[in-house]
Each structure stands twice: as structure tokens, then as C-alpha cells.
Amino acid sequence: MKRESWGANICALANDIGGPTYGKKIMSGSLAAAGVFASEGRVGTVLRNIHPPYHKARCQGARNLNPVPYQAAYVGHKIHMDQNEKMVMFGVTHVLAIDGFSSKIVGEATMPG
């Protein structure tokens, strides 16, 4: 298959499958699941050419889903509340308070769900 037809097929599938936000790794896997096998490099080249602004945004971390974790300066500065409802079918809900500095449990409550 010629390079131009590869690019056209990848371009068409890219618009159908993931739109402009998928990167080369996710798009390569999605294309493979659809029966089109292309290298990550080729998929990256096609994505860079068909959506330059989105490519630039991906390079600058526009979809960074791992924010910087908070920093607690001392014990009691930040408290993280967590609720577990896995036992709600048995009528129980657990709530925990965890200190952000020491990662210790500072409070716990078991309540009827």
C-alpha cells in the first residue's frame, strides 16, 4: 500500500475513532483494534499533519491528567476525607479522615448507610 493511501486511511479513521485529541499511542491501538496496523511513527506523522494545533497542544501537555499533588506544610494542615460505600448493601458506610502531611488516619466513622 502506498504511503499516501496509508495517510488517507489513518486520517479518515482518526476522525471517526478519536478525533483530534488522541495521541499516537492511543490512536495506534484504536486503529489496530479496527484492523488497520500502522507504526506509531507513521500515525504520529499523520496526526501532526492533519491537526497541527492539536498536535502542538498535546506536545505542551494540554491533556495532562496527573496534576501536581498538594503539599501539606505540617500535621493538620490538610485533611483528606474519603468515603467508602462498598458495604452500603449491608447498611454500612465508612468515612475516613487522613492527614495530608503524615498520611495517618486521624478520624474514622462507621455510619448506617
Automatic annotation (TrEMBL):
- Lineage, top-rank taxon, reads Eukaryota
| Protein name in UniProt | Uncharacterized protein
